[in-house]
Design a protein that fits this description.
This protein is α/β, with parallel strands linked by helices and about 550 residues long. The chain is built from 21 helices and 13 strands. A hairpin with a 2-residue loop joins strand 7 and strand 8. The chain is globular.
Length: about 550
Amino acid sequence: MIRFDEVRYPIGIQDFRDLRNGGYLYVDKTELIARLIWRGKYIFLGRPRRFGKSLLLSTIEYYFRGEKALFEGTWIGMHEDEWTLYPVLHFDMSLNSGKNDRVVEIFLNECLSQYEQEYNLPDKSYLEDVGSRFSALIRGVYYKTGQQVVILIDEYDNGILETLDAPKEQQEAMSDVLRAFYKQPKGMDRYVKFCMVTGVSRFSSYTLFSGPNNYSDISLDSKYATICGITQQELLTVFGKGVESLAQNLKLTTEEAIKTLQLKYDSYRFTESQELVYNPFSLLNVFAERRLANYWIKSGTSKVFVKYLTRSEFDLLELQRIWVKSERMEGKYTKEDSIPLLFQTGYLTIKEVKDSLYRLGIPNGEVRSALVDQLMPSYLGVSEDEFPEMLSKLQRLVKDGDVSGWIAQMQVMMAKIPYRLFGLTKSNHEDEEARLEAKKQSIARFERTYHLIVDLFFQMLAINAHSEIEIAGGRIDMVVETDHYVYVIEFKLDGTIDEALKQIDSRGYLIPWKADDRKVYKIGIVFSSQTRNISSYAYTPKP
């Protein structure tokens, strides 16, 4: 084979043997894999698509197949003394379309038939369901080889995700087929050496597994926070040449390239551990092509997912402020609560942990772009063709320093946001003091909603915007920075422009940018609870 003096990035390579024999770059995760295998017999891991789950299971498969040569130079290769050969039954559920129960049943029977032939076992296709046939296969392989069986099930929930928006009867039929298959390892400890299941949705949310307590769910376990994904340390060491090459191509310094990668692809956090990980699929493509793009999104977001989400009771503003318990993050997908779906599929990630509560938020620029492209047109009630034009115009006005222009464009976009987001809560308290307090809280939420809307607009533009910045004189509502302009903004609800501008002056909000070479604007924006939009504004350049 002809070889070139450049790094080979394993884009789309999910087989560990192909990766190692092909000379592709490999990030060694085998110490975590060894700890995982040592941990227990039944393991479940939930991660978004394209995060390396398939390669993880493939690595585990070759380990149990005793292929020592493939692990040369890895942590396991340097520490493992026994390389016992175990039989492995590996089911990749992503290889079937999952569009209905019959398709999935045919797929599973074909897999079982192949393993019956591989181990020279009798054809058991006459059995009534795939579950009975699977159970017979596990026992048959055990007695045939004299070794316990390793079972690996990848993307177990493919059929569930592809029928999210299907009629209830179709969903139940899909669950029946999968349940009959997945429940088999329970009660088969004698025959099973190790069993690991991966997917996007949390398996405990569905009744597909009999006795889910059999499985140790490591999805939120800090010890395995980085088992899928690329850490900052791995980026700097393993991908060092890729970072340098990207920097040269983009005409950036190495430090600027790293910062750009962080903003675009980093900040996934799946556990209480504060270590963040990059999206591996996006990073590999960035270094292979030496350019920035939304690779993860373009790799195939399910149309069923987008259709389901836009039909649900989905509040896009909630993504900017949501605090939840772990039970909600791991919950079942429903049209009444889309947070589990957004978290488990990677559109939200953990930002902060406090007192057993998790603050969720949008991970990075790539995901923000996805939410904009896929969901905002439906959210604002505009066509997919009209929305990019609106967004492009807003971005151009902000970057050009046209304050009146970009505020007017925001007014147009805000006018299209659903009425339900702006309703003030009515109080039924008989006590006057309680009623006034309820009204005060409702108004505070109302004002916060406006603030979040403006914040979200700037996030969609991928422009540097920060909210509620603490300085010596107080807390600035928002600061927006471009290459040539700085906008220091104070919001008021049903107030006056003078109040907003005087607050900026009296509390010294402009002081941090006093020596800035860019043009600095102080901007007052007043929202109306009656029109549910920007009612007035004023701005002046920094004196």
